[in-house]
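As a warm-up, study this chain.
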Amino acid sequence: GCGQQKQKTVITIDNIKITAGEFEEAYRIAKMTTRYDLSRKEFLDTFIMRKLMLKEGEALGLDKDKRFLENLQVFWEQALLKFVLARKSNELAVVCRVSDEEIEKYYASHKDTDFAGKELSEVSGQIRAFLFKIKNQMEFSRWTSTLKRKAAISIDYKELDIPTGR
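Now compare it with the structure written out below.
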């Protein structure tokens, strides 16, 4: 079947085995991230050369180098943070709703200043987006405050040379 085709080893470089699915995914990502149209053959040559260089880096022990591991840690943290924020953002998009009543109330209290000469129908989308953003920020702030409250945090301000405001 189709699933077996994706799992079949199609490239072997010494002890490295690459399936059709892995190659297709790497090719798809490369096409999205490069500025020019990459043929499958050009990509294959580049893909193999990258694997060979990575294998050489491992053979030289560069994958255990302190600077490499520090960079890897920073990258890992950034990638994980991106995923956590995306997930929370999606959750909040479902939770944060703006009702027609809220839009009408906001319009009524701002029609003489922010919306002078404009009908509710003209600005309701703008108001909905604004109120959604405010609610989303409030929920995000509530979430981060909860994370802080749940954690045991200890800070040596003196050692960090940060004034405590006292």
